[in-house]
Amino acid sequence: MSEEIGIKLLHPLAQVPRRQRPGDAGVDLTLVEPLSLEPGSRGIGSTGLALELGPQTMGLVMPRSGLALHYGVTVLNAPGLIDAGYRGEIKIILVNLGEGRVDFAVGDRVAQLVVASFVEADFVARTQLGATERGTGGFGHTGYR
């Protein structure tokens, strides 16, 4: 199932996001300006794109596994959330957790965007919650490995 997402190119070097393979969940986001990250530093990458997401959809900006594995670069606030009502430029907060400087050029793929549906929930205060087998067990309650 495919849904049309409106996109506005805000920069002459902006690229329409695309999948690398049919059926992939994520589409690549590329840079419109160079970006250099020293070890331990963070920066903001400009995509030159704005989106028109539909009602009850959101965009999730996710890291690229190859950048994380080979360079230690990831999306700092992963996943970055893009609300349906936002019409500004999509920018990506990147962090270099690696040991060397990483230089990105215009057109480099630095993150991926996943569009997902969500439930607009209403939260209701209650004095008791329904019982489950798990109950209040959390943080390793079933073991660590």
Automatic annotation (TrEMBL):
Family to which this protein belongs: Belongs to the dUTPase family.
SUPFAM superfamilies reported in the protein's UniProt record: dUTPase-like
Transmembrane spans: none
Domain of life: Bacteria
UniProt KW Hydrolase keyword: yes
Keyword Coiled coil recorded: no
Keywords: Hydrolase, Nucleotide metabolism
Pfam families referenced in this protein's UniProt entry, alphabetically: dUTPase (PF00692)
Recorded name of the encoding gene: dut
InterPro entries, alphabetized: dUTPase, dUTPase-like, dUTPase-like_sf, dUTPase_trimeric
Domain dUTPase-like: 14-143
Example GO molecular function: dUTP diphosphatase activity
Gene3D superfamilies, sorted: 2.70.40.10
Catalytic activity of the protein: dUTP + H2O = dUMP + diphosphate + H(+)
Protein name (record): dUTP diphosphatase
Enzyme Commission number(s): 3.6.1.23
Organism this protein belongs to: Ferrimicrobium acidiphilum
NCBIfam families tied to this protein: dut, PRK00601.1
